[in-house]
Amino acid sequence: MISIIIPAANEEKIIGNSLEKLSVFLATRKEKFEVIVVDDASSDKTKQVAEKFHKKIPNLRVIRIEKSPSEGKGLAVNKGVLEAKEEIVIFTDADFSTPIEEIDKLLLKLKEGFDIAIGSRALNRSLVKTKQNFLRELMGKIFNFLVQRIVVRGIVDTQCGFKAFKMPLSRELFEREKIFDFGFDVELLYLARKRNLKIAEVPVLWYNHPSSKVHPIKDSISMFFDLFKIRMYHASKKGSLADKIFYQLYYRRTIWRFGLVGSSGTIIDYSLFFILTRFFHLSPLVANPMSVEAAIIWNFIWNNLWTFSERQVPRPLWKNFLIFQFVSLGGLLFSQNSLFIFNRVFNIFDLIAKALTIPMVASFNYLVNSRWTFRDVSAGRSTWQTYIIFILALFALYFLLIL
């Protein structure tokens, strides 16, 4: 009837104590329970310690997942919930910051007709028996203020790790999840609101555990960006004005990401160009390729890691870099030709002439790189021959101009 999910990352020292408490608690219950401990890529003996409780907790399963550094607790919860077989799923922190006995408060709300019941530390502060330090409490309040303004209104504590869901009504929420770090709770609640599921917020006992892995600064910054990711990932083209804006941001994400990377590369390009022409007294036509090459290397790194990271590119990294370099050579030739025309033909001041070339070269680079260098396998073969011919034409034009 009820599945309890316990995500555990390097919890060797506390998971045994928590499962001991859970076994005693379950022995007093009439309901059928299954317990799923998700070993969240632990480097210690969390899994081995948990597996020792198979006799005390008959319906215990211990599963292990591996994850990338960008994924967090949310992935463990997600895998555990999707493995669950019962009608109700509850997930709780491995340290039992909220005592397992508080489960009845959540179950009562589900019996009253709510689809989701979530523990809250904010509705009744007297139930918070061990408080966090001032900085963590302040960051939590700021984060919740932002949550209510950007994502989910009316819920005063989205982050308490004690939540219950009716299945299969809530299964789709977990199947649609895209955020797996500390912002995953907010995403689940946002999706639930979009599906018009009824959510009850319940005051629960809570004890701050000194070994908590949430960093008040680093993780708060990450969660702040998660709020915008949630709105973008699940925005509707036909929703509110804000929804439409977030939809366009997500739909056109490679363009503005490429623009941001290009802007940072432009800073490197322009700064180095200024240094080489003003401090080393190189001519603009000599300094320009040097500054551009520095920006090319910078741009490739970040476009590969971020801008087009979601695409499946069929070539190895070194081949992609060579293609990117060749495309950038085309951009350089475009830049050189434009700079020559603006500076030598129209007598425009060199720094202004350089600035005029930037948007044209950026557009050229995006179009060719998105359709060739970082072309997804699902898009089929690119017309790379056309790009080669065009770049060779730019090369020929450059020689005509400088002769």
Automatic annotation (TrEMBL):
Keywords from the named record: Endoplasmic reticulum, Glycosyltransferase, Membrane, Signal-anchor, Transferase, Transmembrane, Transmembrane helix
Catalytic activity of the protein: a di-trans,poly-cis-dolichyl phosphate + UDP-alpha-D-glucose = a di-trans,poly-cis-dolichyl beta-D-glucosyl phosphate + UDP
Record membrane topology: Single-pass membrane protein; Multi-pass membrane protein
Localization per Swiss-Prot or TrEMBL: Endoplasmic reticulum membrane; Membrane
Top enzyme category: transferase
Keyword Flavoprotein: no
Broad class of the protein's primary localization: endoplasmic reticulum
A cellular-component GO term for this protein: membrane
Domain GtrA/DPMS transmembrane: residue ranges: 257-374
Domain Glycosyltransferase 2-like: 3-174
Membrane spanning residue stretches: 254-276, 282-301, 321-342, 348-368, 384-402
Pfam families associated with the record: Glycos_transf_2, GtrA_DPMS_TM
EC number of the protein: 2.4.1.117
GO molecular function, one term: dolichyl-phosphate beta-glucosyltransferase activity
Biological pathway: Protein modification; protein glycosylation
Classification via CDD domains: DPG_synthase
GO biological-process terms attached to the record: polysaccharide biosynthetic process; protein N-linked glycosylation
Family that this chain belongs to: Belongs to the glycosyltransferase 2 family.
PANTHER family documented for this protein: DOLICHYL-PHOSPHATE BETA-GLUCOSYLTRANSFERASE, GLYCOSYL TRANSFERASE
Protein name: dolichyl-phosphate beta-glucosyltransferase
